[in-house]
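My current task is to audit a protein record that another person submitted. Thanks in advance; the entry in question is below:
***
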Amino acid sequence: GSSGRLDVAVPGTGTDEVGRLGAAFRYMLGALALSRGEQQRLVQDAGHELRTPLTSLKTNLSVLRRHPEMTPEMRDGVLDDLDSESTELTELVNELVAVASGDLEAQPNERIDMPALAAEVAERVGRRRSRDVEVEVRTAAVVDAPRSALDRAVTNLVDNACKFDQTAGPIEVVVDGGTLTVLDRGPGIPAGEEGRIFDRFHRAESARSMPGSGLGLSIVRDVIVRAGGSVSGAQRAGGGAAIGFTLPVSPDWPSEPGPVTSDE
């Protein structure tokens, strides 16, 4: 019968056909074991993240049942909490499905105009969140990447900035060639956390009480690295965060700089 084990020793170490077949099977089993390990970690981490909003939902529902005499103001506050928690759960489930289903991997590259993508995401997220999202194009460029995956990455960056920036000021998206950076005036990134912000479910101390799936920035990294780019996060001068990515500019894209649409 089948044991499901992936740590079985596969014989064959020579250079003949049997040896090559053994090496191929060992590589395949190693890749499967790594994939299974990642899936198990995702499930464990997701279970932990799901418990917090679920527990809060149950608590607020219990409060509504036990205190039918509460004032309209208190009831509205509890209902607002329930709405926020259900939204957080929805975001988490959507992000989990995207990660676990492999939707971010099985997409062909397309030629994508960076300023146009930034403008589309800024308009969409700004309308949804009732927030000003401004786009500055320092240098226009096009890149080759899966369109829906890159759209999700930019959307996650802008959503993340809107979540942490509680000021009334605008969120800024800067496009400079193949580099896109989202700037906010939130609490910023603690020293030493610059690389960890892209880890799955990682939250800095200042972010523990904030809503969100904990997967947004890790999805950004997955999308960008898979497309041959790199991510970056830094403290913004004057307060806040500057988080973004750099992708290779399409090789046949003209080298002339595009128009600068606004001053720094």
Residues 110-246 form a domain with the Heat Shock Protein 90 fold (CATH 3.30.565.10).
